[in-house]
Amino acid sequence: FSTPLDMTWWKRVPSMSSWLRNLFDKFLTASGMTSHPSLIPENTDALMMSAIALHHAADLTAAESIFRRILSLSPAHPEATHHLGVLLAQRHDYLLAEPFLRSATVLLGSANPVCFVNLGSTLSAMGRFAEAAEAYRDSIACAPSIEAYFCLGTILLNANQFEEARQNYLRALELRPDFADAYNGLALLENTLDHPQEGIRNAELALSFDPNHHHAHNNLGLALFNMGRIEDAIDHYHLAISRCNDYENAYNNLGIALTDIGHLDQALAAYKTALEIRPDYHDARWSCSLTLLKMGNFKDGWAEYEHRFNRRGGEANRRNFSQPAWKGEDLHGKTILLHAEQGFGDTIQFVRYVSLVEARGGTIYLETHPELERLLCNLLGIGNAMARGALLPAFDVHCSLMSLPHRLETRLETIPADVPYLSAPAEMVAAWGERMRHDRNLRVGLVWSSNVLNKAIYASKSVPLQDLRALGECAGVSFYSLQKGEGCKEIAASDMALIDWSNDLKDFCDTAALIANLDLVISVDTAVAHLAGALGKPVWMLLWYGGDWRWLQARNDSPWYPTMR
Question: What's the pTM value of the predicted model, to 2 decimals?
């Protein structure tokens, strides 16, 4: 627009309805204006109407110019302030939008609660979630609305304030019982809390009101996946993608499900699409790494695995030391701190690399879980292995145990698999042996239950003890419980004969000493299976149909543990 302003622009807007054209004509006549540019004064009301119409027509540049012109004439114009803030937020200029939206909340206040919602959405987009939540609460204080309740519920869900989030979603549904977004929010909440049946119920309610709700299809897929209904989950991931073909999260979830049923090439294609849509999507890179590793493609798999710290929740495992991370170079007498990451089994599996790191010419310290400290002191020496939380010694470089295969360029054929690489102190082994000296049977250790809290993972790594009772009918065999945690409660209800000394197993060093006196360990996929393999003890592992990446696929041996089947 040039000066003087051409007020005939609205006649050339194709999307403007005839009633709005007529209304604008009447407004110009009543204001004493004509369509001749030289005779039109700068009337802020007329300018406001033109700016709003342009804004609705998605001509943001022209609309912004007029909103700013209004504010130059009337700096405290409340609606122009609000609309300009909204326009800037729509353009993702959040830093520029925030002061206008804040001013609008002061100028409009309770007369226009939506300005608080718009401020909250802008703050949320900037990652300032606590401030966003306050803005939504201010909106609700002015006048309860489904938008404010829903947005506040979503902020609280992301902050893991689950009960308050649920209450806000339910309040939104009180105002609008067919609000599909709120049901979808509840579905995501229940999935997060590992309540898949409730997740299914709420996702289905969302879809009953909006069959094309792609987020609801995705969340229904997640709930079905967690119930073990993999094929049904895949169907809903496809439906989510069909409703929104650039839905990167659904592609990632599809890849995970396809990996579970062994369709690894299709899974990689799904991850590739997710990353084409969003190149910085670290969750997809993490998922892709696990599929590549399961395929035995260690070269690409370990490289992608390094993105695990950037995925959702991965930051908690990152160690931010001032010393540099080790990249695999020779140490030349330097001191390196290795630190455990993730679970007990991961630490037991990857501590095998200690000798290879030591061969690079350095002194090694290892920070580990308290439950593994005594066992790993027997590997590295007292003082060189310490429990997490202890005062760390001085060191030059550091590395996570889980990054060692990448740093040392491990390939499938170069896995360091010399066993045993762990052992319990001789005196502890002898003490357990004395307790078992009268048992002349075949001695078999048994683990049937995982201790993970996630129900889906627990189901894939656990079996009811009672289902193993036929083992107890084998003559000449004594079964020793190596079970810890909740699974121990099943012993009393089982009619299987078990020798249960689990109360005396204080840590993994005790367990290792007991295993050293056994002939065989039968275990589900838990840390004890890793421990038995690291001790060089024959171990039979009960593996769920999908199988974790480290067990590869279509084989009954393990390149990590030669004594494992």
Answer: 0.82
In Å, what is the CA distance from 217 to each residue of 137, 167, 181, 197, 509? Answer: 30, 23, 12, 15, 47
pLDDT in tens, 478-530: 999 999 988 888 998 888 889 999 899 999 999 999 999 999 999 999 999 99
Whole-Å CA distances, 509 to 20, 218, 425, 515: 81, 44, 8, 10
Query: Coil, strand or helix: which one is 331?
Result: coil
What number of other Cβ atoms are within 10 A of residue 554's Cβ?
6
b/e sequence 124-163, b meaning 16+ C-beta within 10 Å: beeebbebbbbbbebbbebeebbbbbbbbbbbbbeeeeee
420 cis-preceded (ω within 30 degrees of 0): yes
CA distance 266 to 101: 46
> Cα 12 vs. chain centroid, distance in angstroms?
50
* Integer angstrom CA distances of residue 163 from 133, 159, 458: 15, 11, 24
The full 3-state SS of 95-147, as one line of letters, equals: HHHHHHHHHHHHHHHHHCCHHHHHHHHHHHHCCCHHHHHHHHHHHHHHCCCHH
Lowest mean pLDDT among 39-53, 143-157, 273-287: 39-53
Q: Which residues of 262-291 are buried (b: 16+ CB within 10 A; e: fewer)?
A: ebbebbbebbebbbebeeebbbbbbbbbbb
For residues 491 and 498, the answer to whether their CB atoms sit within 8 Å is yes
Long-range pairs, 106-111, Cβ under 8 A, ≥24: 107/76, 107/78, 107/81, 107/82, 108/78, 108/79, 108/82, 109/142, 110/142, 110/143
Give 354-357 contacts, CB < 8 A, sequence gap 24+: 354/379, 354/380, 355/416, 355/421, 356/404, 356/408, 356/416, 357/331, 357/399, 357/404, 357/408
**Which candidate, 379, 429, 410, 434, places its Cα nearest to that of 537?**
429
β strands within 239-382, DSSP E: 335-339, 363-368
C-alpha closest to that of 460 among 553, 564, 548: 548
Name the token pair of 344: 């007990």
Q: What are phi and psi of 547, to 5 degrees?
A: 75, 140
Q: Which residue has the tokens 């997710």?
A: 274
